[in-house]
Amino acid sequence: MASKEMRGQHESAGAWAKRYHQTSQAVLESILRPHGLGPTQWYVLYQLAHDGPTKQRDLVRALRVERATMTGVVAALVRKGLVEQTPDPVDLRQKTLCLTEAGGELWARLPDPIARIRAVAFDGVSQEEQAQVVRILRAATERLAHHLKEETPPS
């Protein structure tokens, strides 16, 4: 009986969502590795390429990473000459990030790993089915986030 229960747990939507996330992250890393980038570095470049100069603290929130993680990612991108970090003119403790010329040139040459992942993962899946998956996962995530907020005592 236990093995049947275990199979059922591994076939749950949550288990498949986790497996999809892990597998898509592995694909993302394999696409970016030849370019000397990790996934978080790519997401920082993406944000800067699409939104322009951005405060580092805003990227911490947008990408949902720890401040220390972002500090290391930005330091690596600065060392590579892809990102420039300047003190914010209003609050010198804050840093503003922007792509350098080299960063913009690299960005223009990079493959879009998200488009590649989507093309492979959802090949043959209709737009309606994809939209349904998004609706279901969004609603489930929002319900869980709301539940967590209600269950977490104020600190």
Task: State the main characteristics.
3 strands, single chain, mainly alpha, three-stranded antiparallel beta sheet
Structure report:
The chain has about 160 residues and is mostly helical. It contains 8 helices and 3 strands. It has a 3-stranded antiparallel β-sheet with strand order 1-3-2. Strand 2 and strand 3 form a beta hairpin. It is globular, with a radius of gyration of 19 Å.
Which helices and strands, and how do they pair?
Layout: H1 2-10, H2 13-32, H3 39-51, E1 54-55, H4 56-63, H5 67-79, E2 83-87, E3 95-99, H6 101-109, H7 113-121, H8 127-151
Antiparallel strand pairs: 1-3, 2-3
Helix pairs in contact: 4-5
Task: Specify Rg, calculated over alpha carbons.
Answer: 19 Å
Strand content: 5-15%
Number of helices: 8
Global outline? globular
Low-confidence regions: none
Question: What's the quick description here?
Answer:
The chain is 68% helix and 8% strand. The protein is built from eight helices and three strands. The chain has helices spanning 2-10, 13-32, 39-51, 56-63, 67-79, 101-109, 113-121, 127-151, and strands spanning 54-55, 83-87, 95-99.
